[in-house]
Write a structure and sequence with these properties.
The structure holds three protein chains of three kinds.
Chain A (H helix, E strand, L loop, with lengths): L3 E5 H11 L2 E6 L6 H10 L6 E4 L3 H13 L3 E6 L1 H16 L4 E7 L15 H6 L9 E3 L4 H18 L2 E7 H5 L1 E5 L26 E2 L6 H21 L3 E4 L6 E4 L2 H16 L4 E6 L1 E3 L3 H8 L4 E6 L5 H9 L7 E3 L8 H11 L2
Parallel strand pairs in A: 2-3, 2-4, 4-5, 5-7, 6-7, 11-12, 11-14, 14-15
Antiparallel strand pairs in A: 1-8, 6-13, 10-12
Helix pairs in contact in A: 1-2, 1-6, 3-4, 9-12, 10-11
Chain B lengths: L7 E5 L18 H15 L5 E5 L14 E4 L5 H11 L4 E7 H7 L1 H10 L4 E6 L2 E2 L5 E2 L18 H4 L5 H6 L6 E6 L3 H19 L5 E6 L3 H4 L3 H15 L3 E5 L3
Parallel strand pairs in B: 2-3, 2-4, 4-5, 5-9, 8-9
Antiparallel strand pairs in B: 6-7, 8-10
Helix pairs in contact in B: 1-7, 2-4, 3-4
Chain C lengths: L3 E5 L9 H5 L5 E7 L5 E5 L10 H5 L5 E6 L4
Antiparallel strand pairs in C: 1-4, 2-3
The chains are: A alpha/beta, B alpha/beta, C alpha+beta.
Amino acid sequence: MGERYLLRGNEVIAEAAIRAGCQCYFAYPITPQGELVEHMARHMPRLGRTFIQAESEVAAISMVYGAAAAGVRTMTSSSSPGISLKQEGISYIAGSNLPAVIVNVVRGGPGLGNIAPSQCDYFQAVKGGGHGDYHMIVLGPSTVPEAGELTMLAFELADRYRTPVMILADGLLGQMMEPVELPESLELSKLPQKPWAATGAKGRDPNIILSFDLSPENLKRMNLELQAKYAEIRKNEVRWEEMDTADADIVVVAYGSIARIAKTVIRMARAEGIRLGLFRPITLWPYPYEPLRDLADRVHTILTVEMSAGQMWEDVRLAVAERAASPFYGEMGGVVPTPNGILSEVKKYAR
Amino acid sequence: MPVDTARMTKVFSRPQSLTEAHFTYCPGCHHGLITRIIGQTIDELGIAERTIGIAPVGCAVFAYLWYRCDALQVAHGRASAVATGLKRARPDRIVFSYQGDGDFASIGTAESIHAANRGENITVIFVNNQIYGMTGGEMAPTTLVSQRTTTTPEGRDPATTGYPIRFSELLAQLDAPVYITRQALYDTRRIMDCTKAIKKAFQNQVDGKGYSLVEILSTCPTNWHMSPLQANEHVATTVTKVFPLGDLVNKGA
Amino acid sequence: MPHGVVVVDGERCKGCGLCIAACPQKVLAFSGALNKSGYDVVHVEMPDACVGCAFCALTCPDIALSVYREKTRT
């Protein structure tokens, strides 16, 4: 630690991936995450690592599958339309128990949408955008430094659980510049050993990497093993942050860039005598249902604020149920909620 | 009559780099023959301990069962991209992908072309039997004009379905590939030629030369509704007219 | 001519008959006996004619054939 730089979120994710020991990076350019690809193009070859500008998102995620199967740390990044194309590969990576990191710097949708910030890919990320019963661990950084920290964590969790991990950022976070202390580089030789990887069957039985079994009984068993892994992840890896919730009457639930804006709203509301708190999920899958449920018993209103039509809101309502009022405020199409806009929503529920 | 082979020389036996698993292919299908040649090549080059095979989707989906090598089973059409990731991660390993005509020349068109264009140091075995065997005999990109399949019941009509795609010729236009050849297996001479070609495609990779592709005109007696012998004859007399045999690229030969 | 011996693995043979056609000496033929998978397997019909050329094995898609050749014949 100790080095401080002024960097964009996209650059910090790229640099953190390098420092986490990412040896192979594959991507197809798309806005608003171009700086991420370009940072990797500049630095990966210099370090003797692999950078390929793939012919498509489908190819990029398939290259990730190959590199992950070979046992190295590997990543791809894109933005919403590109992530849709990667869903095939993500499903195969999950089904084959491979570790990989996927970054989505979300932009406005559906379709081509636009290049402005959005959180409209939440469902795709946390409910499983591809085919089959699988999940990814989904991390939602809310500041540029946290984007770096969660990128390091993403590689660690991917290896620990042999699972795809997504960094769900948005165009605001990707483009924003902040001073950051970059994490120390990990030594490649000290990264976790992967005896399961396809590295050549020298002195051992062959390792076979697959997501396939024609026998329903066998495939059911493979699915049960996946589900057991997900139960373990739910038990160990739920992360969230609370701010000013101890005495709160109203709590805003927000993640990513919106959580950062919400922190300003809390200061503004408190200055006006409204006891407002913030609940910020850091892992969007597994979702922090239980702490949010506990919080719902202590407040009268839980207001979800998102840059979407109310996608995370569904998880909030699953947690809150009838314990508290659970209204929603959202913007779409790349419109970013302002502190004043959120505050006036909060005031609707202040008693 | 018991045969005493103890004092004899074994002139043909199962390659050591193959498992004992029985092939899942139909009688007379060339997939098994190609697998045997690959196994023999791996034996001869002594590379079993550092070879990683990539199995496609299609009749060869079980290819990971045949070799005493590490293997991956991958998404339909993506084998060349997966091979790229694998080889870049482990450049000293030998990576081969085994892909059918639907996999390589239809759904994987982009991945196939760009892996070749980057000159990835991999070996691609492209099995062209002009039909989709696994799914029930539908049209392939390589299906011949007027050939009947379950999705061209009146025969392939170029007016609506185009022509059989000569994918190896397309790839031969690229600067990067070092070896692109089309082979067949309809008689012992072609089998021996194909064996040499496959060995060369692996040797190129061992030598770090770059992208090598062996297209093999294979048969599908089941979905062609022919006996294995008729299917071989069909390749010899008809298929080779559309897909001529021989080397298309052979750099540094 | 050298003398050879072909050994058929009856459980691997799928009765495709490609080996029968490949044999220049007409050594092999369908046996009429079915294996566990229900295939009419090939057997050695004319053992004395075999020269151990291995064309049959070279052609077999199921690696069902092993071929031996006498080291010397005086």
